[in-house]
Amino acid sequence: MSTPEERLRELGIELPDVVPPVASYVPTARTGSLVYTSGQVPVVKGEVGVTGKVGAEVDADEAARQARICALNAIAALKAEVGELSRVRRIVKVVGFVASAPDFSGQPQVVNGASDLLVEVFGDAGRHARSAVGVAALPLNVPVEVELIAEVD
């Protein structure tokens, strides 16, 4: 079985630099064998590409692509904390926040963008418990934010 880094290469994905915090927090916190990532927003090369609420300015498919970017940023933060992604035993929990128009109820489908990437990269170890929550607004007016908890060696 290939390593997560090999799977990323097979998928044609290059890990980005860790997104610097926009407030008073750190990208990851480790306690024992668990690593918690801070909420990751869809920033690519220092820029937010999509803003607005899902179900209004942003459609669900685009929001799912943005959730995938969030998960990629979380993986980058996780790798920076543990060195090699092969040290990840499993992704334990994912929480996705979706800035939602009042009548939008497709948060689970949006957060699938993040969940699917985690399974592509980590295989069965990427299957996780999850919450997908609709919220009124997110930092930088992004449509989605994702955080995760990983168990590591």
UniProtKB/TrEMBL annotation:
Domain of life assignment: Bacteria
CDD domains per UniProt: YjgF_YER057c_UK114_like_1
InterPro entries reported in the protein's UniProt record: Endoribo_LPSP/chorism_mut-like, RutC-like_sf
Domain (Endoribonuclease L-PSP/chorismate mutase-like) ranges: 5-151
UniProt cross-references to Pfam families, sorted A to Z: YjgF_endoribonc (PF14588)
Signal peptide: none
PANTHER family: ENDORIBONUCLEASE L-PSP_CHORISMATE MUTASE-LIKE DOMAIN-CONTAINING PROTEIN, ENDORIBONUCLEASE-RELATED
Protein name: RidA family protein
Organism this protein belongs to: Actinomadura chibensis
